Amino acid sequence: MSDSSRPPGPGAAKVFAVPALLATLTLAGLVVALFDDGLHDVIAWMALGLPVGTIPWALFRARRA
Amino acid sequence: MLSANAIRAWSWLHTWTSLVCTAFLFMLCVTGLPLVFHDEIDAALNPAAWMPANPGHALSLDDLLRRALAARPGEVPLFMSFDEDRPVVNVTTAPRPDAPANTLYLASFDRTSGAPVPRADRGEAVMHFLLQLHTDLFLGLPGMLFLGFMGLVFALALVSGVVLYAPFMRRLEFGALRVTRSPRVKWLDYHNLLGIVSLAWVMVVAVTGVVNTLAEPIIGLWKNTELADLVAAHAGETPPAARSSLDAAVAAARQAAPNMSVQFVAFPGGAFSTARHYAVFLHGNTPLTAHLVTPALVDAASGDFVGLREMPWYCKALALSQPLHFGNYGGLPLKTLWAVLTGITIVVLGSGLYLWVARRSAAPSDVPPLDGDEDASAAHRQASS
């Protein structure tokens, strides 16, 4: 079970690529809405909505498979 | 990637930090959901029937204060606050400046006519109950600090959950849901997906929640350090018998900070002022600065403007952690996302609890390998031990 006994894999970078992107979007959305109303709010809704939107996407994909 | 020992250690940490705080997190999510929509619920339960009597007209603040005091003989004023969306002035009075909170009396007046405004308080008792439970479990400061500690434990559960996400997802694509497998495998995938997608939001709400539990010590620190000179210089004094004009005090504060709005005035002798001063609390006009409050002090005997006292950084951190915890700064869609993410958190908590129970009820040797994924099955086995 040690690292050396396993063929080199894509590792944490691949596992965390999408989660890191979603987390960055979330944080950007949370902060941008603080600065002003109007357009800033709309950007925040999209930035927070996209991570949440991956859930129905994953559910839909799992049902079809 | 993690060694087997490291996975075992992180699993232990994730299991036990989660178990310690899960019951409280359920409570915080369930009470937090309606609190996100506090304004909307109030508005729905109390349809706006009130209209100002003389739109465009405005009575002086001194006049309104006289009316409020005339209705409460023998009492002293503590606060005057201003509604944001209608010309309504609220005056809080009490038998003494240092009277306990349950003896305070709040009355609302039409700024345009001085007529009393009926209280729109239908549903208020329920919301207040939820807020109290959410904030301090009805235990005051110790309850707040306890929930803050639970928030820290929860943050630890989140960090360990992220670390474990790697070995569990090593052979799986992002968003993989093995819905045709055993309930345990299926719910493990749900737990991982919902947990990682909501992670950044949950972490922000958890950390800002912890900061909010420190509100009382933080404000106390401000009063005891940066405002100490003012408070000490007038300690033991009684508030001036004849107060200078309130309108002049508010006008002086506005002039000193032309880009800010007046939130409320604290009268001399109360907890938010000194024995000697009007404290006019001003706030900015963007979602960011609306929570940054700056008191302007005006001598309540002479009417002299003393100055603005900007908040120290730790009070600003407290102030900014409020919108980020409440989600009330980006319109109804942001509140809706707050609610959806709270719902997601409830599912993550519930599935985590289910996975723990399911692992415990199965002997370690019964745990099936997950798709031949040795990392995940090893982590799974170790989590059950």
Number of strands of chain B: 7
Query: What does the oligomeric state look like here?
Result: heterodimer
Unreliable segments of chain B (pLDDT under 50, ≥5 consecutive)?
365-378
What coarse outline of chain A follows from CA principal-axis ratios?
flat
> Helical content of chain A, roughly?
over 70%
Radius of gyration of chain A, whole Å: 17 Å
- Largest sheet of chain B, if any? 7 strands, antiparallel
Ranges of chain A where pLDDT stays below 50 over 5 or more residues in a row are 1-8
Q: What amount of the residues of chain B lies in strands?
A: 5-15%
Order of helices and strands of chain B: HHHEEEHHHHHHEEEEHHH
Global mean pLDDT of chain B: 89
The N- to C-terminal Cα distance of chain B equals 21 Å
**Based on helices, strands and strand pairing, what is the structural class of chain A?**
mainly alpha
Binned, the helix content of chain B reads 40-55%
Q: What average pLDDT do the residues of chain A reach?
A: 86
Structural class of chain B, please? alpha+beta
Q: Pair with the most extensive interface?
A: A-B, 39 and 39 residues
Note down, in words, how this protein is organized.
The complex is a heterodimer of chains A (about 60) and B (about 375). Chain A is built from 3 helices and no strands. Chain A is flat, with a radius of gyration of 17 Å. Chain A is about 75% helix and about 0% strand. Chain A is mainly alpha-helical and about 60 residues long. Chain B is of the alpha+beta class and about 375 residues long. In chain B, a hairpin with a 5-residue loop joins strand 6 and strand 7. Chain B is elongated and about 75 Å long. In chain B, strands 3-2-1-4-5-6-7 form a 7-stranded antiparallel beta sheet, covered by helices on one side. Chain B is built from 12 helices and 7 strands. Classes of the chains: A mainly alpha (about 60), B alpha+beta (about 375). The interface between A and B is large, with 39 and 39 residues.
